[in-house]
Design a protein that fits this description.
Structural class of chain A: alpha/beta
Strand order of the largest sheet of chain A: 1-4-5-15-10-11-14
Helix content of chain A: 40-55%
CATH class of one domain in chain A: Alpha Beta
Number of helices of chain A: 16
CATH topology of one domain in chain A: Rossmann fold
CATH architecture of one domain in chain A: 3-Layer(aba) Sandwich
Largest sheet of chain A: 7 strands, mixed
Strand content of chain A: 15-25%
Oligomer: homodimer
Largest interface: A-B, 53 and 53 residues
Shape of chain A: globular
Chain lengths: 430, 430
């Protein structure tokens, strides 16, 4: 029995899937708030032209430019789909478990997929530099990488409280040649107002976004890149699920349950959207589960218009949201700590297509389940991906109780080599 | 132009290549020293039966058992071969550069290839536990991983001076469920004599080997595993070069220069031996270069019988050696710090088939060249693998001067996600 299916380069999917025209009802568009300047009219100043076009496209399939396919291959795509035979034995479950290996990413996460696409488009449009913000650090690292590969400069504004202790990730961004500023920084007007008052200001994602935006708007050679939430970002990520579908054909199997962790939604969307398309268009029956944290169970929030950022710079998006100024406690799976879910996934959640489970903030259950996976399968998931793994194991154990032979597919969105102190802290390793 | 060639699972090589019968003269056998007990007669008590058989085999090709092929696939084999198109452009060289991606390994290095084979054989032979020593930590992590996957317990004796500061790697071994002891430890007789005198004793590879051996010899359910130098270890690693040969066929190309870093020789051997076979049997002309450190340029040492360990527990092997009690200063590429090269590679070096280059101990040139690679290609090599990368770039720049369109193949034996402080220290990243 095969325990892994690879694809050769020429079998890489050559089109992205845009689910928008297939949604059960029209996707609510971005909206301006009642007061203040128009955020929507400002979008062309913020976003890469082609990405803005994609954001509102009603085309069902979009050809991936050859230049981006080349970059995907440089990043090691296609990536294998594994059957978790050892884990199945260990759990003594009749379920079959399959996992996708985004952990083979050069920077450690799936974020490189859209980072490469965005940098390629930015270069085509004549930009010389990309700016962004980062919280946990995965997105900043991915953009630093993609900019280097595509031949662009990169500036990252990194929430100071994280910047101060994730030194290894900082060195990695520096190796890719990025300029990295602890945010709030003295290099932007907005950052400087806060920095001058308190040079040790902890910062926040909202502040860092404001700095990244200001920097790119003041430099005609620079543009801004976003790593999650938006429609075009999720579409770029569908390469994950599209590969997985091809690999399931080779395994001669098909999932009953599709699981991934969900913060803003780029990883969950990238993995699940092609399968959601099968449900919407082909009448397939699949249970979708988003694995979340109780500190940020955004899919359990209200479905309403909200800002995507703390500072209210973005337009309002119709999202399942906890409120854009909600305080959320730090967790090891920090990439899941976001107040809202992407509009596409929020609509599908609202319509009943997506279930959600939220794990306690002490993360013990998440990391204990994941340790079983590590011992059985040998791969080290990122703390965020550990939520995927945990949920898949919980579902497999339900099958053990019920005797159901379900096929469970989950995505491991990144590796945990830069996150071993998190494992140590939660599991008390000595 | 394709920048990456993958193989599908069914194209994984199903036989290992044993070069011994093809060597230009018979391989000198292990020898006992003039005094003391026979080390050779003791080998069956130290080694896994099948591995001992393989060590002296004259068979040219050995079928890889299906169970080991399954484990290789669980570990993500086959691994891609990349064409370094961005790096070529950056260097403005007429040379073509190809690199093999052992960095996709679950523990970060090529060491898993022989670890999985040895653990599978140990399990077949009825053992329940494997013991070993480790210095830099790559081998201990690989064996901890392989033991977990194969369903064995694992005990690692780890040189205390390294154990004390590589905490992340320790946590990784613990996640795989291994027992890890700082060596010298109080749990073996030999270790205890040293530990009782000084519980902070820094330890050495020789001491750790002695502890691993004593532990396994005192437990009939345990056996000992070695990660380099020996013939069977290099044979297990030939999976790397055999895959690479298939991938070069698909690229419709063939190397003029084959490069890898060399400590004990398992990575260099695994990558180069199938190509050395082409030279010996098919008359191909290839330049082989072992990339080494000036602190341990063992291929430039004397070709003579020497012990493989400081404590003189092993038989004597005919090796290119600096002397088994030579002091070698610590470097970031610590896995290259070994006094002797494997007997197979030493004979081929002695016969003029392998060149060697040794880089200065400050490692500046090595890491600076590697930073160029990282910026251009986006992958983060382990410090040891950085020597491979450095040498490949130096050769490509020679081609720029001479105008030669050489095809240069090099192996990146592992990733550097656990070694970012090393990059920081040498390059002064801030």
């Amino acid at each position: 029995m095969n325990t892994m299916v690879n694809l050769i380069s020429k079998d890489i999917p050559t089109r992205w899937y845009n689910i928008i025209p297939d949604l059960p009802e029209p996707l609510p568009p971005p909206m301006d708030p009642k007061e203040g300047p128009s955020r929507i009219q400002n979008l062309p100043n913020l976003m890469i032209g082609e990405c803005l076009k994609q954001e509102f496209s009603q085309e069902n399939w979009m050809d991936i430019p050859g230049g981006i396919l080349d970059l995907f291959m440089k990043a090691g795509r296609p990536r294998p789909l594994f059957r978790a035979t050892n884990l199945e034995k260990r759990l003594n479950t009749p379920a079959k478990l399959y996992y996708k290996s985004e952990f083979f990413s050069p920077t450690g996460s799936h974020k490189v997929n859209t980072a490469l696409a965005q940098c390629w488009y930015a270069k085509q449009q004549g930009f010389e530099r990309v700016t962004t913000e980062t919280g946990a650090g995965q997105w900043g690292t991915a953009l630093a990488y993609a900019a280097a590969i595509a031949g662009l400069k990169c500036t990252v504004y990194w929430v100071r409280s994280v910047y101060n202790w994730k030194k290894d990730r900082l060195y990695l961004m520096k190796l890719f040649g990025a300029d990295v500023h602890a945010s709030p920084s003295p290099v932007t007007e907005f950052g400087k107002t806060l920095y001058d008052k308190n040079p040790n200001h902890n910062g926040s994602l909202g502040i860092a976004i404001s700095e990244g935006l200001e920097d790119s708007q003041n430099d005609p050679k620079a543009t801004y890149a976003l790593g999650s939430v938006l429609n075009h970002v999720l579409m770029h990520q569908t390469i994950i699920g599209l590969e997985t579908q091809k690999q399931f054909e080779i395994f001669d199997d098909y999932p009953d349950v599709v699981i991934s962790c969900l913060g803003g939604g780029s990883n969950f969307g990238g993995f699940a959207i092609p399968f959601l398309g099968d449900v919407l268009k082909k009448g397939k029956k699949i249970k979708f589960i988003a694995a979340q944290s109780q500190v940020a169970p955004n899919l359990q929030g209200k479905y309403e218009y909200d800002f995507a950022d703390y500072a209210e710079i973005t337009p309002m998006l119709k999202m399942c949201t906890l409120g854009h100024r909600t305080d959320m406690e730090p967790i090891k799976g920090d990439g899941l700590r976001y107040h809202g879910s992407s509009p596409i996934l929020s609509l599908l959640r609202h319509k009943g297509y997506i279930d959600t489970v939220a794990y306690p903030k002490d993360e013990k259950h998440v990391f204990e389940n994941t340790k079983m996976f590590i011992e059985a399968e040998g791969w080290l998931p990122a703390p965020e991906s550990a939520y995927s793994v945990c949920c898949a194991i919980d579902e497999a154990l339900k099958c053990k109780d019920s005797g159901e032979k379900k096929v469970i597919a989950f995505n491991i969105s990144g590796h945990g080599f830069l996150d071993l102190p998190g494992y140590q802290a939660v599991l008390g390793l000595k």
